[in-house]
Amino acid sequence: MLEAAHGRAPAVASAIRRVVNPENMIFTYQGDGDLASIGMAETVHACMRGENITIIFINNGIYGMTGGQMAPTTMPGEKATTCVYGRDPKVNGNPVRMAEMLATLTGPAYIERVSVYDVPHVNKAKAAIKKAFQMQMEKKGLSFIEVVANCPTNYHMTALESMKFVKEKACEFYPLGVFKDITKEEK
Ligand SMILES: Cc1ncc(C[n+]2csc(CCOP(=O)(O)OP(=O)(O)O)c2C)c(N)n1
């Protein structure tokens, strides 16, 4: 395991991909502040290149670790410490739907958005990550799994309330599903 500077994981993973045994599995694990703000360029370029790596993107709509600042994925109206009245797109800009945006690129092989708000969805998330790793083992190219997740601490909710929020609000704004799959296109 190697810890990259924030946002730089796809660049570091690309470098590792090129120097290690091609049989080694390489994946990144990144939050939305990390992947879609600090490391947006690294993410987009690794996807454009179509590196044979797997990116696991945990989208909880907030900068959790630093105390709940607005992330690029904070939804309109959603509160954060840097938009205390709720995100106003006119003032704070619009959020980004990473899976949809990256699916417009030629590079990625597989892009799916999953969630973890109940057991069936945890199992679906597990299956998507397994498929991503399998595709990497088959050297099919870059796989990107977005996980719509919770942050009860910074949402100021109980764990159960935060799961309800993810199900009813976040998954409405960030619809679940497969956005790209070259194995389907091949058939
Ligand atoms: C280059 C750089 N910029 C800023 C920071 C400060 N920082 C540490 S964690 C973090 C926010 C992380 O948010 P996110 O990636 O959404 O992950 P979460 O904590 O919500 O899981 C920030 C801004 C840093 N460590 N490195």
Task: Write up what this structure looks like.
This protein has 187 residues and is an alpha/beta fold. The chain has a single domain (9-181), classed as Rossmann fold (3-Layer(aba) Sandwich), CATH 3.40.50.970. Helices cover 43% and strands 17% of the residues. It has helices at residues 9-19, 32-38, 40-49, 89-92, 98-102, 119-137, 152-155, 159-173, 182-186, and strands spanning 27-31, 54-59, 62-63, 69-70, 110-115, 143-148, 177-181. The strands form 2 sheets. A 5-stranded mixed sheet has the order 1-2-6-5-7, sandwiched between helices. Strands 3-4 form a two-stranded antiparallel ribbon. A hairpin with a 5-residue loop joins strand 3 and strand 4 (69-70). It is globular, with a radius of gyration of 16 Å. The termini are far apart. Bound molecules: thiamine diphosphate.
What are the key terms here?
9 helices, two-stranded antiparallel ribbon, alpha/beta, Rossmann fold, 43% helix, five-stranded mixed sheet, 187 residues, globular, 17% strand, binds thiamine diphosphate
Q: Mean pLDDT, rounded to whole units?
A: 97
Q: How many E strands?
A: 7
Instruction: Using the coordinates above, name the CATH class.
Output: Alpha Beta
Which CATH-level-2 architecture?
A: 3-Layer(aba) Sandwich
Query: What structural category characterises the helix and strand content?
Result: alpha/beta
Number of domains: 1
Roughly what percent helix?
Answer: 40-55%
User: Cofactors and ligands present?
Assistant: thiamine diphosphate
- What fold name goes in the CATH topology slot? Rossmann fold
Helical run tally: 9
CATH superfamily descriptor: Thiamin diphosphate (ThDP)-binding fold, Pyr/PP domains
Largest sheet: 5 strands, mixed
Sheet-strand content, in percent, reads 15-25%
**Pattern of helices and strands:** HEHHEEEHHEHEHHEH
Strand order of the largest sheet: 1-2-6-5-7
Question: Distance N terminus to C terminus?
Answer: 36 Å
> Segments where pLDDT lies below 50 for 5+ residues?
none
The rough form would be described as globular
What gyration radius follows from the Cα positions, in whole Å?
Answer: 16 Å
